[in-house]
């Protein structure tokens, strides 16, 4: 059976970002979180003019050589307005934050350091440094300057900067579309009370949320019954997406029809089963569409919720990252010291829900009393998955293990 590392390598070898440019809009959030593929230059100076960075009076610094000088106020300029008068010796212009500095002035004194009486303003600050409280034209960025390079992830900060330099769309890698297909005769939607033999579909909403948390756009399809024709129809619909996440139906049960249906549809199997716990039944394959030159990665995730979660974090999250043009890092990993004895049975390496804590600069990990792959509830107390190597054995308190930090 494949190891986790071997399986991950196969997944990533088959995942590649689209190579043609895509124009994404800024205003509706489409570009947020995406990786830029063009070099962006500014079409303006910022600020576009010398501007005041405070509310106060624009004056000639040399006029405030001694404290208490009085100047004649000749004009008031608010942000958005343009000064019409030149400041000369003995005069000042009332100016608001962001407004253009009037000709002649070389400093701004804060309103708090002045008193106004009629059209005369008394300046209490002295001396006044030339240039004080002024941001010069182009101090932040200059017209023609490169402001963003390809490869940059567009955070809200970059979205703001793109707007500042006049862009309402950019070339970037579109977030991949993920189709989530929950399968199983026993499933009912979360809005229903399960009847005898039934359970609610928790994987659909969870996988959709996981895909979105990893930076994809995700769509959850209706629950699909364990019926080859229905399965075929839904998988065909999902093949328009970059990734299909099927949940359930990949184990050895009589109604585990997913691998067979996928093969019938020409989804090429890359592997089935990985040496890990939980999550062993994982199925992975690809379907290439010659006409559109696109490829769909198809994951048959085991139905048990925690198995699905672990497979997602180990294999799907890095795949989404790679398709998005980001480095396929997966969850962050840290090594921590086991706080208590932990018994492990079975012959597969295990990802166990646990609590990671930090005491000073020491990291400790405490496995939670987890009931196995159907027990999602315990995961709500967990902040990591602790990795225990294969083998029937008891791990002693004080031993160190790698943990995957859950998002
Ligand atoms: P399967 O992989 O189809 O054999 O399912 C394994 C276990 O996971 C069974 O106990 C299923 O009832 C359960 N299961 C399958 N699909 C879901 C789902 N969408 N939500 C919650 N549990 C599920
Ligand atoms: Mg099933």
Structure characteristics:
407 residues, alpha+beta, Molybdenum Cofactor Biosythetic Enzyme, Chain A, Molybdopterin biosynthesis moeA protein, domain 3, 4 domains, six-stranded mixed β-sheet, 28 strands, binds adenosine monophosphate, binds magnesium ion
Task: Kindly summarize this structure in a few lines.
This protein is of the alpha+beta class and 407 residues long.
Widest sheet, order of strands:
8-5-7-6-10-9
Q: How helical, in percent, are the residues?
A: 10-25%
Name the average pLDDT: 97
Overall CATH architecture of the largest domain: 3-Layer(aba) Sandwich
State which percent range the strand residues make up. Answer: 25-35%
Described by its quaternary structure, the protein is single chain
DSSP strand count: 28
The named CATH superfamily of the largest domain: MoaB/Mog-like domain
Major pleated sheet: 6 strands, mixed
- Could you say which structural class the secondary elements and strand pairing correspond to? alpha+beta
Give the ligands present: adenosine monophosphate, magnesium ion
Number of domains: 4
| CATH class descriptor of the largest domain | Alpha Beta
Gyration radius, in Å: 31 Å
| Residue runs with pLDDT of under 50 for 5 or more positions | none
């Amino acid at each position: 059976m494949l190891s986790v590392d071997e399986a991950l390598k196969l997944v990533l070898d088959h995942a590649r970002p689209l190579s043609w440019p895509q124009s994404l809009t800024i205003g509706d959030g489409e570009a947020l979180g995406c990786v830029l593929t063009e070099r962006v230059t500014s079409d303006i100076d910022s600020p576009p003019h010398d501007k005041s960075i405070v509310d106060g009076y624009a004056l000639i610094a040399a006029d405030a050589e001694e404290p208490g000088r009085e100047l004649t106020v000749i004009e008031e300029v608010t942000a958005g307005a343009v000064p019409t008068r030149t400041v000369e010796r003995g005069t000042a212009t009332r100016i608001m934050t962001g407004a253009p500095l009037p000709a002649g002035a070389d400093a701004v004194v804060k309103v708090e350091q002045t008193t106004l009486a009629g059209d005369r303003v008394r300046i209490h600050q002295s001396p006044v440094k030339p240039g004080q409280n002024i941001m010069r034209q182009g101090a932040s960025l200059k017209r023609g300057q490169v402001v963003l390079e390809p490869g940059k992830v567009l955070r809200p900060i970059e979205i703001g900067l793109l707007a500042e330099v006049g862009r309402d769309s950019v070339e970037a890698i579109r977030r991949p579309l993920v189709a989530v297909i929950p399968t199983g005769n026993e499933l009912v939607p979360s809005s229903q009370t399960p009847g005898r033999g039934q359970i609610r579909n928790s994987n659909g909403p969870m996988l959709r949320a996981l895909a979105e948390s990893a930076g994809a756009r995700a769509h959850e399809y209706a629950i699909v019954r364990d019926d080859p024709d229905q399965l075929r129809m839904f998988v065909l619909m999902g093949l328009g997406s970059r990734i299909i996440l099927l949940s359930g139906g990949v184990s050895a049960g009589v109604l585990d029809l997913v691998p067979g249906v996928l093969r019938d549809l020409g989804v090429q199997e890359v592997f089935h089963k990985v040496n890990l716990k939980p999550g062993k039944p994982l199925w992975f394959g690809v379907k290439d569409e010659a006409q559109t030159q696109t490829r769909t990665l198809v994951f048959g995730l085991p139905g048990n919720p925690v198995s699905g979660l672990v497979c997602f974090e180990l294999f799907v999250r890095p795949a989404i990252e790679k398709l998005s043009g980001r480095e396929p890092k997966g969850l962050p990993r840290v090594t921590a010291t086991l706080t208590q004895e932990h018994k492990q049975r079975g012959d597969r390496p295990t990802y166990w829900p646990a609590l990671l804590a930090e005491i000073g600069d020491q990291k400790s990990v405490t496995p939670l009393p987890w009931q196995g792959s159907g027990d999602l509830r315990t995961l709500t107390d967990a902040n990591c998955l602790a990795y225990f190597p294969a083998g029937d054995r008891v791990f002693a308190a004080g031993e160190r293990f790698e943990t995957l930090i859950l998002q």
